[in-house]
Amino acid sequence: MNGKDGKKPRPSLIEGPITKTLILFSMPMLMGNILQTLNGSINSMWIGKFLGEGALAATSNANLIMFFLMSSIFGFAMASVILIGQNLGAKKVDEAKRVVGTSTVFFMALSIILAVIGLLFSTTILKWMNTPADVIDMAVTYTTIMFAGVPFMFGFNLIMAFLRGSGDAKTPFYFLLLSAVLDVILNPLLIQGMGPFPRMGIAGSATATFFAQAVSIVALIIYLYKKKYFLRITRNDTHMLRINWTIIRTLVQKGLPMALNMIVVSLSNLILVNLVNSFGSESTAAFGVAMQISSYVQMPAMAIGGAVTSMAAQNIGAGKWDRVKRITWAGVGINIILTGFLVILIHLFNRATVGLFLPTEGKAIDIGVHINNITLWSFIIFGIFNVIAGVVRSAGAVVFPLVVAFIALLLIRIPLATYIGHSYGFDAIWWTFPISFSVAALLNLLYYQFGNWKKAKMMPGLSRA
Q1: Which of 77, 130, 163, 374 to pair with 2, CA 20 to 30 A apart?
Q2: Which residues form a coiled coil (predicted)?
Q3: Alpha helices, DSSP H only, in 318-406?
Q4: Tens of pLDDT along 265-312?
């Protein structure tokens, strides 16, 4: 399938060997996830070593808020990805460009609104989270600067979603690499005030992230126009940079449940960190580090889940249901292998891994090791239900995965964690991870096998081949 500009054929996800295509498409996404998580981990190391456990606890709370904000737009981005994928699978390039134009206007307006709300209420939110009094000033400083960068953050993630929806996972990786390198280099310079840079403390870490994302999105936009990316909005396409209410309704109707799904995940984490904060700043720091480590273990599941969603959407648009089924089980198998390998590797070097972030002596490192021992293996189960849910959503069936997440995380994990924490102590809380993930995996598998998700549609009038 050649572009109108005479460029090389666009990547196709509707033909060729399933497993090979899935691996090749998901690997840049996996590497991108590694970069983002490694970026956060290295920055946490700088903060922990230069500014201490208090600053690390402050950023742990602040980063949960930013994750909550990203979750609020995740569903709308995924709805755009699926719409683009199904249109391209059905060979409707102009319709895919209309999705790009409307999504761009919609996301930019939404990002500005959320940034303003966040700037106004960040202190209130941090207090609600029961952020320890000795770190709340640092948390407010860090969070305020991060909120100022929300439009860049949203824009960067939206463009990457467009690219992945069209079958290009390599270009997002290259610009994630640029962002990560800038962020990692600038963090110690601005925290400590090295060379010509001012000493900014914790504000320096947030400023480094702000600058890295701003530079990266500008560079990405310039690159796409220089290479004449086939879904770019040209001078002749400016009429597409407007609100198309049919597309907006679809983004809201299909995106909102997916956004709520992510919000349920982040809300459960916010409530959990509120519980953890009640046990003191050492517990908060250990929990933050354990979650940082677990984010590595989740990376294969997140990358494969994203790749499966894009691949399944294009194949659904093309009417190739047999390939959709093969994509599903290939994704599950690859996830089990990759996630299982990471779980074993981190278990073998558990204390040394936690020690990269925390002082080797003290209570915090022992807490972090204990959390890892109980929770890490359960992310294999997390990967299974994440892949299944990704396929189901790619057809337009977005409500059931939300219901599953709500049941598993808010009706099971949080009440159970609260009860266990108060009845059996802090060390027992972490058994709620494998329990809640198992419930979610079972419910998603049953729906995949017996539910009517294949009859769902993303948008009225969007026919499948």
Answers
A1: 77
A2: none
A3: 321-348, 350-354, 363-375, 378-394, 399-405
A4: 878 887 888 888 877 777 888 888 888 788 889 889 989 998 999 999
Report the C-alpha gap between 163 and 159 in whole angstroms.
6
Alpha-carbon distances, residue 377 vs 344, 352, 374, 410 (angstroms) = 8, 18, 7, 21
- Token duo for residue 324: 């959709």
- Give the closest residue to 127 by CA, choosing from 65, 204, 67, 66: 65
pLDDT in tens, 410-443: 999 999 999 988 888 778 888 999 999 999 999 9
Q: Which residues contact 43 (CB under 8 A, 6 or more apart)?
A: 59, 183, 184, 187, 205, 208, 209
Distances in Å between the alpha carbon of 15 and those of 162, 220, 320, 331? 20, 28, 10, 16
- Please enumerate in sequence order all residues whose Cβ is within 8 A of that of 369, keeping only pairs 6 or more positions apart, or say none: 350, 351, 354
**Residue found by looking up tokens 């996630």 in the block:** 339
265 vs 250: CA distance, rounded Å = 23
What is the overall mean pLDDT for the chain? 86
Phi-psi region of 317 (alpha: psi -120 to 50; beta: other; left: phi over 0): alpha
Q: Is the model's pTM score more than 0.90?
A: no
Residue type, 151: P
Token output for 149: 């960068």
Q: Residue 88: count other Cβ atoms within 10 Å of its Cβ.
A: 27
Tokens of 376: 């890490």
Q: Note whether 61 and 126 are within 8 A (CB).
A: yes
